[in-house]
Specification:
The protein is α+β, with helices and mostly antiparallel strands. The protein has two domains: 294 residues, Creatine Amidinohydrolase (Alpha-Beta Complex), CATH 3.90.230.10; 123 residues, 3-Layer(aba) Sandwich (Creatine Amidinohydrolase, Chain A, domain 1), CATH 3.40.350. It has nine helices and 17 strands. The N terminus is likely disordered.
Length: 460
């Protein structure tokens, strides 16, 4: 666990250190040497919860000042309403409010008004003022007065198109509850109900787009996740013949907890071995139990830090007595997994839909005679974030709705999927190589923000 001194040092040098990491991050087609595993999570300091508030709020201010006006203009919205009740917040709420915020206070109303000069007013109609970057348009009083104040404010601003968070296909854009929607319509000035439109496009673009400040910090965050995996897939944690896959998954969870980092799903650790047949059609070959020499290990890990989430999958090998390295058949299988990643990321072109990227990747993999399964998703404020769906493991077909969302610049993805390949040393038995790494699409190319796995973790 990082010492207080290391955490303090990181707090003082965050902006100096992180850009260096970003600049060193390899591209999707970088040489294998650039994708080596990170030695340990101890290489990364983690801010204490109190120290996270300033950079989180600085990144929020940057987003609201520079990103929101562009996205509201893109969505052709004059006003955006985000209405919340305590402990039943809109999914987008916590991406919009300064820290420390644990819940909406009673009923909290955020009003974003795009003015004629293109700037956006950030107003709070709330019993308890939020502070910067919001200006209080009303505070105190009772609930009826609060709703009346909202109606009056909308009438005074006179927006032509008012975005509300309702959506059939995107849960994160469907945060306006039926009760709040009904109450809103009751207080609108006459004729304004016809001005209400879904804010779906704005919400998705707000959630999927990364700011410059976030992209400076993201390599560090993803590096922490990779560092803990490197620890877990080592003799520091694993004693062959003794340690179980469940022991390793709990080590990963507790290691993140010791760093004050929340996981957004329980880590998964599983094994494959010679004699435990893996059907090439099975998307998730893997068993649980005692880890033994000769086993192939896999983990799936996701954390959130500074409001940004990761999703990472990597592979390890446990050598048998007398082995000096990884069997050549497994080395080739991992190389095939990297080749599949390249086939996928080559298809990232701005404006292409998730479905088009998926179909092109499948076609390219089939031409290369690679047995693969692609199910890549955006990353950001959520682990499974909104944006173009590029396949789903449980839905191998194209996705009619979220799969049609186009690819935009400055968005981040979990390059996720797997390949199946026969291993000669296992008598031709299939092994499933399951990979997932965080990467930025900058509008021109894909960049792995903390590298990617091109060499096996070896539990020596």
């Amino acid at each position: 666990m990082p010492t207080p001194m290391r955490s303090a040092l990181f707090a003082a040098t965050l902006l100096a250190v992180v850009p260096t990491l970003s600049a060193a991050a390899p591209s999707a087609t970088a040489a294998p040497a650039q994708g080596r595993v990170i030695a340990s999570a101890d290489d990364f300091a983690v801010l204490a919860p109190r120290a996270r508030i300033e950079p989180e709020n600085r990144m929020l201010a940057e987003r609201i000042e520079t990103l929101l006006p562009k996205l509201m203009a893109e969505a052709e919205l004059d006003m955006w309403l985000v209405l919340n009740r305590e402990y039943a917040e809109d999914p987008v709420y916590f991406t919009l409010v300064p820290q420390p915020s644990f819940a909406a206070r009673r009923t909290t109303m955020l009003v974003f008004h795009r003015k004629a000069d293109g700037t956006v007013e950030r107003l709070a109609v709330n019993r308890y003022p939020l502070g910067a970057p919001y200006e209080s348009a009303w505070s105190g009083g009772n609930l009826d007065e609060q709703w009346a104040a909202l109606g009056k404010l909308i009438g005074e601003k006179n927006p032509k198109r008012i975005g509300i968070n309702v959506s059939r296909h995107w849960p994160v854009a469907d945060g306006l509850t039926a009760g709040l929607d009904k109450r809103l319509r009751e207080v609108l000035p006459q004729g304004f109900e016809e001005r209400l439109v879904p804010a779906e496009n704005l919400v998705i673009r707000w959630l999927e787009t990364r700011s410059p400040g976030e992209l400076e910090a993201y390599p560090h965050i993803m590096g922490i996740a990779r560092g803990v995996i490197a620890e877990a897939f080592s003799s520091r944690v694993i004693t062959p013949g003794v340690t179980t896959t469940d022991d390793v998954r709990w080590y990963i969870r507790e290691r993140f907890e010791s760093m004050g980092l929340p996981i957004w799903f329980m880590p998964d650790v599983n094994l494959q071995r010679k004699g435990l047949a893996c059907d090439a059609e099975n998307p998730f070959c893997g068993e649980s139990g005692v880890i033994r020499p000769g086993d192939v290990l896999h983990t799936d890990v996701g954390i959130c830090y500074l409001k940004l989430c990761t999703d990472t999958q990597e592979m390890a090998y446990v050598p048998k007595a007398g082995e000096t390295g990884v069997p050549e058949g497994l080395v080739r299988a991992l190389a095939t997994g990297n080749r599949w990643q390249d086939l996928l990321t080559t298809q990232f072109v701005a404006g292409r839909s998730g479905n088009e990227i998926l179909q092109r990747t499948r076609d390219a993999a089939a031409k290369a005679d690679i047995t693969s399964n692609t199910y890549t998703h955006p990353l950001g404020f959520f682990g499974h974030a909104p944006g173009p769906t590029i396949g789903m493991w449980d839905n191998p077909g194209l996705n009619a709705d979220t799969g049609e969302w186009p690819l935009h610049a400055n968005t981040v993805y979990a390059i996720e999927g797997n390949i199946a390949q026969a291993v000669p040393e296992w008598g031709g038995q299939w092994v499933r190589i399951k990979l997932e790494q965080g990467a930025l699409f900058d509008g021109e190319r894909v960049v792995y923000l903390a590298g990617r796995q091109t060499e096996w973790h070896v539990v020596r």
